Amino acid sequence: MEKTFIMIKPDGVRRGLMGEIIGRIERKGFRITKAILMKPNKELAEDHYIEHKEKPFFNELIEYIQAGEVMAMEVVGENVIEIMRLMIGHRDPKVASPGTIRGDFAHSLTENIIHGSDSPESAERELSLWFR
User: What is the domain-level CATH number for residue 65?
Assistant: First the structure.
């Protein structure tokens, strides 16, 4: 079984989408084995998005992820990384397919509801940051 990191971002929590998103994950047959609702501090936010450190949107991203509570989850299942990425949808909600989480709920590049690890390596790194 494969593990991935999924985070419902502040806009998803604020808009009351946790139940909908968790339901989609569970209906797909995946198990949520760890979960925490928390407001990330600056260090955790910066560590999580370290690959974007030199990009012009980094500070905006850090401010956004600290703007409210997030739901951090460890999700387990067969091919969970690839399938969750398909369920999440394209980062840009203008091109995200209907039926995906972002296609159905997101309306901004920055506030795009959800994050999911994109590889086994990033899943391992992100899970170790959020579930120490």
Answer: 3.30.70.141
Please work out, in degrees rounded to the nearest 5, the angle formed at the alpha carbon of residue 61 by the alpha carbons of 9 and 33.
Answer: 30
Number of domains comprising the chain:
1
Domain that residue 44 falls in = 2-130
CB atoms within 10 A of CB 38: 11
| pLDDT, tens only, 49-59 | 999 999 898 99
Rounded CA-CA distance 50/42 in Å is: 12
Catalytic residue among 48, 90, 107, 115: 115
For 70, phi then psi, to 5°, come to -125, 155
Q: Is 115 a catalytic residue?
A: yes
pLDDT digits (tens, 9 = 90+) for 22-50: 999 999 999 999 999 999 999 999 999 99
